[in-house]
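Collaborator request, handled under Task 6.
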Amino acid sequence: MTQQQMSKLLDVPDRTLRDWKKNRSRLYQLLESTEYQEAKEKINVSDVNDIVTFNPSDYTYNLFWQTNKTSSQKVYSIISNYLSSMNYDDVKTLCLKYGKTMVKSVLNDKYKKMYAKGYISTNGMDIPLLGSYNKNELYKQLIGIINDC
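Structure tokens returned to the collaborator:
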């Protein structure tokens, strides 16, 4: 397993993994020699590309309005949709279910894509995005909520 996979799977910062590599080499070697898929199955963790059973009752509002029952949804879609709602309780639920690291990575990916496009299109009106994605006020608020989890 790569260091990036370890970080994502275990919800551990790269800095901690570097410390493990240096000071807890046997633990790091064990993780490194473990296959990502095997580790994922053993600890029952989801990846952003996995399709999981979504239960709308876990969240304040059902943002997957097509059904009020459980449905199969991609983890990335669940996180992305509920980050858009900016509901504090729902963002906390995301952090508990999928881990801070995964929620942050979806947030970063989402904002990087928006800023690479250069605008947000809403009802036929394009709103330009200037500056850096991580200076955006909504982004900062969401990062604050995720860090508080």
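The cover message to the collaborator said: "The chain has a mean pLDDT of 90. Residues 3-43 form one domain. Please let us know whether this matches your experimental observations."
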